[in-house]
Each structure stands twice: as C-alpha cells, then as structure tokens.
Amino acid sequence: VSWELHRFNDQKKFFLATDDQVFQFSQPTRRLYAEHAIDSSDWYLIFDPLDREDYGDLTCMLADTGYNNSIYLRRRLIVYSEPFVVQSSTKDIEVNEGDNILLKCFAQGLPPPQIQWMKADASPLPDGNIRAIGAVELPINDIRKQDRGIYKCLAINLVGYGDIWTLKVNVKFPPYIRCPYPMVGQAINFLVDIYVECYVHGYPAPRISWYKNDYGGQISDTMSVDVLRPIWNSYKYKIEATIPEPNICTDCILSRLTVINVLASDLGSYVINATTNDKPYRTALASVFVFETPECQQFITHRNNIGCKRLRFTTNRASLTICQSILLLFVILTVDLI
C-alpha cells in the first residue's frame, strides 16, 4: 500500500509511505506513522500531530497497480486551523502625498478567514469608515497626510483567536508651520527672557532655522531668507527642539527660540524657516512678533534673576548719611576759605 498527499496550500504532491516505511515528515520530529493491523487487510496512516499544511487530497493506492487500474481510494483531508497572515502581504511603505496605493492582506486557515482593515489608533479609514470588512485589498486613492499611520489587518474565522498583520504607511508631505502665539510681549531691561514657540509639520522631518527680521519687510514662503539675520545658539539666544505628545500632533517638531535678557534691540519680528532635506526642496516660513509690555511677563527668567525686577541703582540709608556728611564738610571748608 502506498500513500500520497496532494497538498492544497502550495499544490505540492508527496509520496508519504509504502507499507510501513515512511518517507516524509520525519524531521525535525517524526509525526507520520504507517501501520498494518495484525490478521487484517487494513492499513493506517497516522498524523501525530496533524499540521495545517496537511490540508489536501489523501490517496491510498495498492502499490503494484497504479492509477491505471483504478485500485485506489481518495479522501479529502480537512484540517480546521486558525488563520494566519502570510508574509507576502504588504509591508511598511512610504509614498508621496497624492499617490494611489493598494494594501494587501493574504491569510490562510480553514474555514477561510474573514479579513478586516482598521487603523491602530481607531481613527477612520480614508473612506470615512472605522473598519473595512471582507476585502483582501484596501485601496487608498489620492492619499493625504492625514491618512498616514499604522494599519491593521485582522484575519478571523471560527478557530482560534485570529491573526493580526500591521504595517506603517508614511506619507511624504511638504513642511508647514503653526505658531500658537504670533505676538508675544515682554518688558525690557528686567534681566528676564522671552521664548517663542512654533510647531513644524512635515515628513521627512525638515531642517529648522531661526532668523531676526531686521529689514522690516513682509514675510512669505516665496521670499529668500538671505535678507534676514540668522540666529544661532549663543549667550543671547537658545534654540531647542522637542517631540510633542501624540495627542498634540504627529510628525511634527516643537521648536522654541529663547531670547535671553530682553533689551530694546531684541524687539521685532523673528522668522522660523523649515526646509525639506530632499529635492525638490520645499520651504515654509512663519513669524512671531516680540513687543514691549509695561510690566514684566514671568515666562522664563534668567537663572540669576529672582522674579521680575528692574535693573536700577539703589542707595541704602548708611550710604546716604555718609554722602550728606561729606557734603556738609565741603560746605564748611568752603565758608572758612572765604
């Protein structure tokens, strides 16, 4: 007796055994056995354990006849298995804003799994629905920056807990800038600082630079920054960049410029510039205006300053008494000389 398996998952055919001699599935651990009942004409093929890949047509055939004499028995070996997503599904991708893409999720299992698409953060899919059910492919046409994120493919059937395939979709888009407070005030000559903040959006992350607009012209994305005075980290300026919390924004950078010890010359317009690192270069500009206030605004103070105190010359009572005594002595000497 010979045994043959026509496996459905990969359409391969295996000669499993002849009589009690097994040819397949012995490595790394044997899981196939062929046995013959004593004093009987019955033959048994035992799978221990049964694998999901064993799903297919199993044929028992008399070894000395072949198919031509039609002495064989064929049965469908059905293996109920929980779903799993195969590696040929779409992996992480990076596209340009406006592109059309097609996400694919291929799953195996029996009964055939149902496919569901969703975003990991539970935000709506590009079509406005929270989930897309039953489709192996998820098309996204004219993709926008808000469509970026982590997508999940869930394969489920009546067996097991299902399988999840995740992939990240990155969307390249040009930078743009949002400054929450376009005008910020501070008193001068108080030994206090002032900071201005802007959120810079863009993917990949753009290069960020700050300038002082000393020439007074209008700011627009088409202007050249060559007419502006560049700002660097120094005794006068401090530039910082942090990643905000995801609930504030994603794919953005919080850029903060601190002006140390604000003086009258520090008032005016400050310009932030964001430029892409890849060609074609794209640029975004925004400005924040710093004006004088009559009272000190306690934003960030100099490390040597306690509170908002104006710099001024003071004279204590002892010094005043000494000055008065010196003046009186001068008057007396003058009278005597006369």
UniProtKB/TrEMBL annotation:
SMART domains: IG, IGc2. InterPro entries: Cell_Adh-Cytoskel_Orgn, Ig-like_dom, Ig-like_dom_sf, Ig-like_fold, Ig_sub, Ig_sub2. One of its GO terms (cellular component) is axon. Gene3D superfamilies: Immunoglobulins. This is Ig-like domain-containing protein. Residues 83-157, 174-270 form the Ig-like domain. SUPFAM superfamilies: Immunoglobulin. GO terms for biological process: homophilic cell adhesion via plasma membrane adhesion molecules; synapse organization. The keyword Endoplasmic reticulum does not apply. GO terms for molecular function: axon guidance receptor activity. Keywords: Disulfide bond, Immunoglobulin domain.
